[in-house]
Amino acid sequence: MKEIITAQEAAKLIKNGSTIMVGGFLSCGAPDKIIDAMVKENLSGLTMICNDTSFPDKDKSKLIQNGAVKKVITTHIGTNPITGEKYQKGEIEIEFYPMGTLVEKIHAKGSGLGGVLTPTGIGTILENGKKIVEIKGKKYIFEEPLGADFAIVYGTEVDKYGNVKFEGATRNFNTSMATAADMVIIQAERFVDEIAPDEVVIPGIFIDYIVKGEDN
């Protein structure tokens, strides 16, 4: 069985300067309770890998607003003007990727692959400084795997073994991120005794700690 900890205990596991993956598509499936606890810890120097930076005053944005994040690796920031303002002022660094490219870089890390080849971005600034590979007359950008020290993810239901079930779009980046970090902490919307095998999306082998969201 997996160890159950509080959101506050989870936040204390994360060190200044760490690279963290944070699940959620905007605020859907975001581990908000753990994020709130991280904000209280006044962390600094974090590199955050995420699909987006959510909305002002919501989940992932809170880490940016309190100065915990020095760099964001993401697909877009259009829903959060605060991120844009900090970027324009030079207070935060942003590394952009197309959404499909970002998730495949994470998949590559989780699968133990040496990288991925993608045609997306050929002929644009996205290929600057990247290795270009030509196969059968078609050019591809070589992208390296992307991992993290910690993955902070969400699950609709999590059982005592760490198996995870999702409802609707809440799975988003959570499923990929859970495979690509040294330590994975999951916030359970509902903690249950056991999930039926055919409903498991993330096997418990990938989960290190469980935070029962309803208790925090």
Topology:
Layout: E1 3-5, H1 7-13, E2 19-22, H2 32-40, E3 46-49, H3 59-65, E4 69-74, H4 81-88, E5 93-96, H5 99-111, E6 116-118, E7 132-135, E8 138-143, E9 148-159, E10 164-165, H6 174-177, E11 181-192, E12 209-212
Parallel strand pairs: 1-12, 2-3, 2-9, 3-4, 4-5, 9-11, 11-12
Antiparallel strand pairs: 6-8, 7-8, 9-10
Helix pairs in contact: 1-2, 2-3
Radius of gyration: 17 Å
Main beta sheet? 9 strands, mixed
- Per CATH, the class reads Alpha Beta
As for the CATH topology, it is: Glutaconate Coenzyme A-transferase
Number of strands: 12
Integer count of domains: 1
Shape: globular
Can you say what the CATH homologous superfamily is? Glutaconate Coenzyme A-transferase
CATH architectural type: 3-Layer(aba) Sandwich
Structural class designation? alpha/beta
What can you see in these coordinates?
This protein is α/β, with parallel strands linked by helices. It has a single domain (3-114, 147-215), classed as Glutaconate Coenzyme A-transferase (3-Layer(aba) Sandwich). Helix content is 22%, strand content 30%. It has helices at residues 7-13, 32-40, 59-65, 81-88, 99-111, 174-177; strands spanning 3-5, 19-22, 46-49, 69-74, 93-96, 116-118, 132-135, 138-143, 148-159, 164-165, 181-192, 209-212. Helix 1 (7-13) crosses helix 2 (32-40) and helix 2 (32-40) packs parallel to helix 3. The two termini are 21 Å apart.
